[in-house]
Fold:
Amino acid sequence: MPEGLLPIIVLIVVVIIYTVAKVIDYSRQSDQQWREVDKSKLREWDDDD
Structure:
């Protein structure tokens, strides 16, 4: 294995882990915000409007 390959692989793995962690964090934030929404003000959406 070439000498410079290991740091590149480690960097790619770190970026992938960071991206997955951010997606999970944003998903949790979205779920929390949806729980806090006043659902009585929502209306049914019809694409024909």
Remarks:
- The two ends are 61 Å apart (CA to CA).
- The mean pLDDT is 90.
- Helices lie at 5-36.
